[in-house]
Design goal:
Helix content: 25-40%
Order of helices and strands: HHEHEHEHEHEEHHHEEEEEEHE
CATH architecture of the largest domain: 3-Layer(aba) Sandwich
Shape: globular
Length: 320
Amino acid sequence: MNRYLRQVGLFPQGEGDQKRLLDVHVLVVGAGGLGATVLPALVGAGCGRITVVDHDRVDEGNLHRQTLFRMEDIGRLKVSCVAERLEGLNPDCRIIPVARRLEPASARCLLPGISVVVDAADSVAVTYMLSDLCLEAGVPLVSASVLGQSGYVGGFCGGAPGYRAVFPDIPASFPTCSEAGVLGPAVAALGAIQAQMTLSILLEMQPSPLGQLISLDLEHWRSSSFRFDDAPVAEEGGPFILGLEEITEADLVFDLRERDETGPLSVEWAVRGPIEHPEMLDMKAGRTVFICASGLRAWRAAKRFSGQSGTVAFIATTGR
């Protein structure tokens, strides 16, 4: 217990809580910049089992902020590198690497037995998907996002409102780090808060970070925080996220990508292209599915037509 001596005194139940940490199972989605801070913090604290999901490979452009990787890791799967780096940090912790893109069906399979989900993917589509699934399963979700020199961390689901209660609609645009840039210390700062929230939830510390959102602006040296415990729950019966592998031939499918957009095919019977005359759509009772590359167009279409057919779903991404 000597390795945990400096932290057990801060836990509500002391050594009892430390032993509880050995039995938790945390799902971390994303092994990049946020994960580079979150993962060592959780492993160092003694979380017994951590599943890490990421399909990406290390790129040289990652290295200024994704500090678990080295030059010799370029081209390798991120989860493989992460498992190697963290293996010697704490023998009490087991890292389970999952090298695949997270889709709704696979996420549902991963959730049983999970204590807390950490959304470190910094992807709007992934965040909405995880929030919907965690809200349904009653699993706490700690999500963070960072761009430039600012970002936020929030505790959702698990008895608190989901992500849609604070961000009801996908934004009109969401630039990526490659487009807008990002500073490594800002990512690390948000990742540290994310790890702290996760440990607080696991140890049931009070006040709970569930229902709390913290914003950090390191360009102007500002921070803010608010609680959203009483935020209205998103409407039931609206659009929900579906994976490509969950589509059946009985579904009416619209692939909203332009006909000249590259990327993988969705399904053979999908109607391809923008919906130019929505009033002419024959949306019978049953399930209508919208698909696009980022999830933005599909979500907007699903919201627009959610009252015109039996069930409306949308695909967050085609994997492009």
